[in-house]
Amino acid sequence: MTMIRVENLKKSFGNLEVIKDMSTVVEEKEVICVIGPSGSGKSTFLRCLNRLEEITGGHVYIENVDITDPKVDINQIRQDVGMVFQQFNLFPHKSVLENVVLAPMKVKKSDRKASEQKAYELLDKVGLREKAKAYPGELSGGQKQRVAIARALAMDPKIMLFDEPTSALDPEMVGDVLDVMKQLAREGMTMVVVTHEMGFAAEMGDRVLFIDGGYIVEENVPKELFGNPQHERTKAFLSKVL
Amino acid sequence: MQRAGVRCIFLCKGDRCMDTIVNAFPYLMEGLQVTLYIFAIAIVFGFLIGLVVALFRLAPLKILNWIAKIFVDAIRGTPFIVQLFFIYFGLNSLDFISLDSTTAGIVTVAINAGAYFSEIIRAGIQSIDKGQTEAARSLGLNSTQNMRYVILPQAFRRMLPTITNQAIISLKDTSLLSVIGVADLTQEGRIQASATFDAFNVYLILGIIYFVIIYLLSMLASFVERKFVLR
Prior knowledge:
Chain A: This is Polar amino acid transport system ATP-binding protein. The structure holds 2 protein chains of 2 kinds. By secondary structure, chain A is α/β, with parallel strands linked by helices.
């Protein structure tokens, strides 16, 4: 089943055309890794997938619903599309547990007991059950990011978007977060991951998209894209980062 | 001579200062009650006005932005006493409006504080990192839920010192209501100053009372601030 279909996506900020023309398809249970130089539009591409950025042109379908249609209930769509940010964006005034139960309780109207039970299961999964009563300010970066993943999973999303989830972390924290993401991928979550972790992309990606200058320059299985890049720009980028 | 007993407690019979205190104090306390009553009502309504105007100012609808901006500019750009005269004398000159001086006073203080509060609240909301809204919205919260559960609770903690500051200014502004005859603390002070022929001591005491009330108010505010400090 097709989870995400992007057709001729365009996005401009004022006169600045960040995404010129992008089309791709993400199937169920696929893990798509998005790589590319900074400023190439990869984060913007990801943020268009749940309409965190208003889309300038083209179409984005989530499970065959066109989210660029102004009549669509975007809040309903977003419940199925979890997102994890580079800067974690935990709610600092709420404990870890409250961060995780907020959306299920307020958006899905599930009761506190069920929400908390689910939250504890998810915190177990990311290895942070003992931090349930702690506040975000008391956690390390890696712990914050794992809480952010648990918070997104609490809505039972069908798709997870990761926007450079390890870029703001100290090197020794990166592994813990990647392990959680790998586990999630193995469980069959559909994932789109913008990342600079080429190791992760090579190991976990079903496909890798190389984005540059507002276009998807090259799109292939990791072995081919990393081992036998077709485009000059891909080669130039990979020679710098690998 | 029901105050004779009180006078004995101070053990300074005949002393002019003590005479003044003893004679004027009960009236000043009555005035203080009126001041606190007006302040309490006006500050609550002022805050609600401020919240609504701030949300208007930040709303996606241009017309609401304009209404909010014109309101704030009008209030900020005119003296408090002119606003008071307009509401008490100006509006009362219309056939279909009749406000007593206390109500007119409460309305003026509330509207005046509301304009300043709205700017404080707007700045507070805008000071919260955009990532907070993005995280909330990406979880499926709508914009009202985002405001209510994510943005405002954080913003209020940041605003508290400035809100306290404006509340203190508004409390002091209530003293101007004496001009339209509200029997507040300052009005009682003026009456007692002429009744006792001791303006020096009456106004000194008046100042001390305002000081003590405002000091208590700031202590309460810093207590609340410590209690809700951002972790």
